[in-house]
Every structure is written in structure tokens, then in C-alpha cells.
Amino acid sequence: MQTKACARYSFSSLTSPARSAMPIVEGNIRSSRELYFRSSNLPQRKDIAMSTNAPEEGALRIGLLDFEPIRIAGLEDVLGELPHLQAVPTTLEVAMEDESLPLILVGLRDPLDSFETLARLKARRPAVKLILMGAEANEETIISAIAAGAKGYLEETVTPAQVTHCIEVVQSGSIWAPRKVLSKFVDRMLHTTEKRVLRHHFTFTEREQEVLRLLVAARSNREIAQSLGIEERTVKAYVGRLMRKVGVQNRIALSIHAASRVFGLEE
């Protein structure tokens, strides 16, 4: 974290009052780290103090996007234990342009916003590897995350070892997700591509775009209807019309198309 860096590099130049405040800063950082582990049900690691491992030259820079400060503190400590990894808190604007971040961990807050973030990052930087981390672990959320461009999905209750293992798997080119979910995703894709004739030259009405955004966020027809204040049967009609317009056979294919080709191109 920047606070930690400032505390470390500018300590010798501080005045006495400022120096006396340093233990408070350090203590707050430790408290944030410990609260991260408690809130994530991670085992306490009493042997770990403030990480002093400097990343080695050529370390893999991992962006941390859309995380709360407590999560950032915890992830920095977890990744800081390995000198070949370097955690770099970032913003969407920076992540979309920073080629020095080949892998980005994205915090899942609101699925609608997070899936659109994944799609925009993949559209701007096709080679970037994305891992989504959140509290939700239902199959549709994970499938939608993969459809939007994620190569991995981590629950917030994972252990530090699982975090680093996931990063290694994704960086090697594989996907990190429950086997059952991957099987279902592949099965849907196989059925989708049997007779798929995608159409790219079309426009969406404002209402169709609203339906698509919620569809990409893995919302059900009932949830979409409630969000937009329309009847559920109207939502079904919109989904059917969108599938015919795009040239796909099911909802997941429509979500994939919307995430990778529609929202990803928007600025």
C-alpha cells in the first residue's frame, strides 16, 4: 500500500512528532491485515509481521482492482511473501492501459458492474489475464464471470495458498474454477456453437441494452423485470428478440456475445 511505502522510505526524514506517529500508522496497517484474515475466515499467521520481502527483478506485477482497503492490505501481505509476485493497487483507467500488469485481480462488488469491467478490460487488452474474487459462489455467477473474460474465480474464504495457486494456474494459461462449473460451461458452449451464425452489424435500443447488461450480470428474468419495472413475460420477449438479433441459441451465448463484443467496445 502507498501508506506502507511512505512509512518505510521517508522515515529518516521525518521530524520527531511525525516519527512518534509512525507506530500508529504501522499498527493500523497490521490491524487491517489481521481484520482481512478474520473477515475472510483465513487462518491467523502470527509468524508474519509487516512484509519486508522486496519483489525481485522481473517479478510478476498483479493489479488489484475494485478492492476495499482491508482486502488490499491482506492481498499485499499474501503476495508479498513471494518475491516473484508484486501486488499493485490500480484503477480501471490505469489497468486498461498499463501493459506492465499482465494479470489483474478484480473484486466482485456488484455483478453488473464487475462483469462489465471484465469485458472492457478484455476488449482493450485481449492478452490480460483476469481473476474475479467475491463472496458469491453460485454456478451462474462463475459461468458469467468466465463468459465476460475471467480466467479464474476465487471465493473470499480461500486460503493464501489457494490465492497463489490460482495465480500460478491462470498465469500458465489454464482456467481456475470448480470442475463442475467448467463442465457445464463447456457443455453450453458446445451446444451454442453447433449452429451458431453470429451477426455483428446491428444496433440495440436503450431498453435492449438495459436487458443485456442485467443478463450479463447473471440476473434471472424475474430479477431483470423487477430492476426495470416491467413484466417478466416482457423480459422473455426481449431475450428472445436479442438472441434472434445476435444469432445465438441460448442465454449464456447471448451473455458471452454481449460481454465480449458489445459492452467491451464501449468507453
TrEMBL record:
* Annotated GO MF terms: DNA binding
Q: Which GO terms describe its biological process?
A: phosphorelay signal transduction system; regulation of DNA-templated transcription
Superkingdom of source: Bacteria
The record's section on SMART domains has:
HTH_LUXR (SM00421)
* Annotated ranges, domain HTH luxR-type: 197-262
Assigned keywords, A-Z:
DNA-binding
The UniProt record lists the Response regulatory domain at 61-171
Task: List the PROSITE patterns hit by this protein, alphabetically.
Answer: HTH_LUXR_2, RESPONSE_REGULATORY
Entry's PANTHER family?
A: TWO-COMPONENT RESPONSE REGULATOR
- The protein, known as: Response regulator transcription factor
Q: Which organism is it from?
A: Silvibacterium dinghuense
